[in-house]
Amino acid sequence: MATATLSESNSSAPSVGGPLLGDAEFQFMRDFVYQHCGISLGEQKRQLVQGRLLRRLRALGLRDFAAYCELLRREPEGELGELASVISTNVTSFFREMHHYDLLINELLPRWLEEKKHGGRLRIWSAGCSTGEEPYALAMVLAEALERTKSTVDARILATDLSPQALETARAGTYPLERMGGVSEARRNRWFLRGEGSYEGWACVHPRLRELVTIQPLNLLHEWPMRGPFDAIFCRNVVIYFDKPTKQRLFERYAGLVEQGGYLFLGHSESMYGLSDSFELVGRTVYRKRAS
Ligand SMILES: C[S@@+](CC[C@H](N)C(=O)[O-])C[C@H]1O[C@@H](n2cnc3c(N)ncnc32)[C@H](O)[C@@H]1O
Q1: Confidence of residue 17 (pLDDT cuts 50, 70, 90)
Q2: By CB distance 3.0 to 4.6 Å, which of 103, 125, 209, 249 could disulfide with 139?
């Protein structure tokens, strides 16, 4: 972690638009987010970080970025999630990258449910679940497959993220209708309860989906309490922020938790190329664990 003397920087200099993010504070934050979140923050992100953190400074009643860095020093774990939410994006949507859901619906879920029909558990992990659209979309296709096959397989989805605000939204499971563009009319009717009165324009996920999804805070760089094995891990649009060694370590840890022949799904602009021998590419950003 950087040990720059924060008070020597120019961040406390008054300016029309609020305090400036000085060299020492920015370097401190770069080291901090790399060490705690695995996120590499390029120099070109300085303006963006300054702009986005101003609101956080105001919410905390802090005068400048030096004070914010002191807070990070004092309470690294307490502020980590908030900082991560500021510098990374929580952008997500229901049925984002639909081809992954198609693979689940048409091939993987029918196969797993058949294989496990005499016992066995089906586990899917949405790692970096953001505000919950991904795990709830997974829950919809899982619930439909269970119903279709009249299966009694013990099936569950684990949803984790670093950001406390994102998890709060995920737990609430209530979304404005305009954010539900990816959900078909049939699924809206089946899996959501429409709000009325002051909740007009909002929809809340069906209790059956909540039953299937367990939401937990987890920093992917820290210890993981769960042992697996998982049939599939969805880690989409998360590692885009990580540098090469962080991705390599993460993929090896995933390999340790995925079933033999299990799957890892990455986001559209992410790849495992040159980073792991444990998985083979079997579809569009879909990887299968090799036999060892
Ligand atoms: C762009 S969202 C992706 C959401 C969803 N997976 C999707 O593809 O739509 C990225 C999420 O990764 C989370 N994230 C970033 N670094 C993380 C870390 N070290 N541990 C856990 N979650 C992290 C962020 O908080 C954010 O919610």
Answers
A1: low
A2: 209
pLDDT digits (tens, 9 = 90+) for 192-205: 999 999 999 999 99
Counting the structural domains of the chain, the total is 2
- Is residue 278 within 6 Å of ligand 1 at its C-beta? no
Q: Are residues 174 and 57 in the same domain?
A: no
Print the domain residue range for 72. 6-87
Residue 130 · residue 98 · CB < 8 Å: no
- Cα 249 to Cα 276: distance, rounded to the nearest angstrom: 9
Cβ 92 under 6 angstroms from ligand 1: yes
Active site residue 161: yes
The preferred substitution site among 87, 98, 158, 238 for testing ligand 1, maximizing ligand atoms within 8 Å of CB, is 238
Q: Is residue 92 part of a domain?
A: no
pLDDT at 40: 83
- In this structure, the answer to whether residues 123 and 24 fall within a common structural domain is no
Ligand 1 pocket member 155 (CB < 6 A): no
DSSP H helices in 104-181: 109-115, 133-148, 164-172
Whether 123 and 200 share a structural domain: yes
The CA-to-CA distance between both ends of the chain, in Å, stands at 38
* Residue 93 within a domain: no
CATH number at residue 157: 3.40.50.150
- What would the pLDDT profile of 48-107 be if each residue is shown by its tens digit? 889 889 989 999 999 999 999 999 999 888 888 888 888 878 899 999 999 999 999 999
Pick from 86, 130, 284 the residue to mutate for probing ligand 1's pocket: most ligand atoms within 8 Å of its CB: 130
CB of residue 50 inside a 6 A radius of ligand 1: no
| Whether residue 163 is found in the same domain as residue 139 | yes
